[in-house]
Amino acid sequence: xxxxxxxxxxxxxxxxxxxxxxxxxxxxxxxxxxxxxxxxxxxxxxxxxxxxxxxxxxxxxxxxxxxxxxxxxxxxxxxxxxxxxxxxxxxxxxxxxxxxxxxxxxxxxxxxxxxxxxxxxxxxxxxxxxxxxxxxxxxxxxxxxxxxxxxxxxxxxxxxxxxxxxxxxxxxxxxxxxxxxxxxxxxxxxxxxxxxxxxxxxxxxxxxxxxxxxxxxxxxxxxxxxxxxxxxxxxxxxxxxxxxxxxxxxxxxxxxxxxxxxxxxxxxxxxxxxxxxxxxxxxxxxxxxxxxxxxxxxxxxxxxxxxxxxxxxxxxxxxxxxxxxxxxx
Length: 329
Description:
Number of helices: 13
Helix content: 55-70%
CATH superfamily: Ribonucleotide Reductase, subunit A
């Protein structure tokens, strides 16, 4: 039997548990928070006073913080790209509306709220150029992305396990910083988003864990493949208006590193967390090739840590079109 057919069999086997996965890792629409729970209520007479207060507090937030918040928002708003990508994964059948396609649509429904609430916050804050942000978002959706997984579910689940934990780290740190600057409403938004991301991380990492139990060697090779080529962020094709090929994602990442929202050390830490979570050192029944892959993975965090220690981050901020130039220090 071909590798592709084996993967399809495994996906069909796990599909029988999709209802359990949804009950364990997703929250019913009527019970989960919605963006309007966290924003000024436009139905109330106090709406304009609430907006005024939001704008006043937002004045104290620094430039790099705004860059990171805008970049995070754009990343969340490029959701159509991620959903369409996952719908193409082997074993996901949207035409037949099978269990996996139901999972992806429900996961998308939860994720959609993130960009929604952050976009509204940015709009009300008056501190950013919304038209530039909107153009960047449209470019990012138009350009799509290539995360190096193809239609392979094993590689895709490694990617989503890593990426959901990375977005948890980023949103959680932004929440902590917002609280430090006295913006408790923004802090609450980002903390709730981070909570969603952590639940989703637990889900996708459990999918990988279950695959390790039935197809350990191929799952190990897929994990090695993704770590070897490195995890690219969903917004790696980020560009500002008027640009074709851009270093905007690198400059956005520099801002995130400068203020400690998401760093090279975090990347290494997530890698180690996945190795520990999946108990890579304890998996049995591996082929010789998969054993070599395991050895590579066990040594990789230490190697990557040495590299990350040598990274030099520019001290000067790139001036993005998204954020008011007056905020640049």
